[in-house]
Design a protein that fits this description.
- It is built from 12 helices and 9 strands.
- With 306 residues, it is α/β, with parallel strands linked by helices.
- The protein has a single domain (32-278), classed as Rossmann fold (3-Layer(aba) Sandwich).
- The strands form 2 sheets. The protein has a 7-stranded parallel β-sheet, sandwiched between helices.
- Helix 3 (55-66) crosses helix 9 and helix 7 (146-171) runs parallel beside helix 8.
- The radius of gyration is 20 Å and the shape is globular.
- The termini are far apart.
- The relative contact order is 0.12.
- The model has no long low-confidence stretch (mean pLDDT 88).
Length: 306
């Protein structure tokens, strides 16, 4: 029994050491400059960004163009994309291609594939996503939108990855960033469909990374918590709630850190704290009522101040 307890103790210490080493890499990279543009350009000439009309997708479009890549912007609203494309071309000198597509539909991928034909795509950002309700809601209150959520959050990632990955594999280089969410790291009641759809993105991305990492392709999933975007009704920014630009710039520092990252140091710390809460406690009625009340008050306060 003594030997068994000693072995368990050593194993726990080893796990803690590994976690500390991993976290120290975040601390080191968070104070470094962003990934050199030459690294991103070495992946290929073009970057493709879905959901590029607003928020995180728009921020990635500008940031990747600043790193010297030409960009393909894909989103539903053509007028928004045209304005963004003009600004990117004027401020960065990069070439921009616009593709209008509604990711809540299934019949768009032949058109997208045709528009991407002949482009050397080095970076794909699967960013497009749909949140049925920002305020916590029971599943039956939002189930009318379930098919749209599945197409937007799941089908888009699978189909866009299929379109781009085969060419990356033949060139033996490429970078795919899949934007998931912190609520994918454990099941979140009252965000059940959104949480589950983003959990799919996590599992899919990490499995693909193992399949293709020896072929020179990086596939990374990002699991941010609160980012101030149109989807989150422009939550007030803070040390935890980042602007889209802040999040994107910091996330590019961690591109080579591994298959999964929260994308910013503040969210990594928050994830560690939340993971310390045992499931039995986290899902207890008392804690769920407390979280629901506090989170609803926080969201309503933030939204009403806009």
């Amino acid at each position: 029994m003594e030997q068994f307890l000693l072995s368990v103790g050593l194993l726990v210490c080893l796990v803690c050491l590994v976690k500390c080493v991993g976290f120290s890499r975040y601390l080191f990279l968070s104070f470094c400059k962003a990934l050199p543009g030459s690294f991103l350009r070495s992946m290929g000439q073009w970057a493709v960004i879905t959901g590029a009309g607003d928020g995180i997708g728009k921020a990635y479009s500008f940031e990747l163009a600043r790193h010297g890549l030409n960009v393909v912007l894909i989103s539903r609203t053509l007028e928004k994309l045209q304005v963004i494309a003009e600004e990117i071309e004027r401020t960065t000198g990069s070439r921009v291609k616009v593709v209008q597509a509604d990711f809540t539909r299934e019949d768009i991928y032949d058109h997208i594939e045709e528009q991407l034909k002949g482009l050397e795509i080095g970076v794909l950002v699967n960013n497009v996503g749909m949140l049925p309700s920002l305020l916590p809601s029971h599943f039956l209150s939002t189930s009318s939108e379930s098919q749209s959520v599945i197409h937007c959050n799941i089908t888009s990632v699978v189909k866009m990855t299929q379109l781009v990955l085969k060419h990356m594999e033949s060139r033996r280089r490429g970078l795919i960033l899949n934007i998931s969410s912190g609520v994918a790291l454990r099941p979140w009641p009252l965000y059940s469909l959104y949480s589950a759809s983003k959990a799919f993105v996590c599992t899919f991305s990490k499995a693909l990374n193992v399949e293709y990492r020896d072929k020179g392709i990086i596939i990374q999933v990002l699991t941010p918590y609160s980012v101030s975007t149109p989807m989150t009704k422009y939550l007030n920014t803070s040390r935890v709630t980042k602007t889209a630009d802040e999040f994107v710039k910091e996330s590019l520092k961690y591109v080579t850190i591994g298959a999964e990252t929260c994308g910013c140091l503040a969210h990594e710390i928050l994830a560690i704290i939340l993971n310390l809460i045992p499931s039995r406690i986290f899902y207890s009625s008392t804690i769920q009522r407390f979280l629901l009340r506090r989170f609803s008050d926080y969201l309503k306060s933030n939204i009403s101040n806009r």
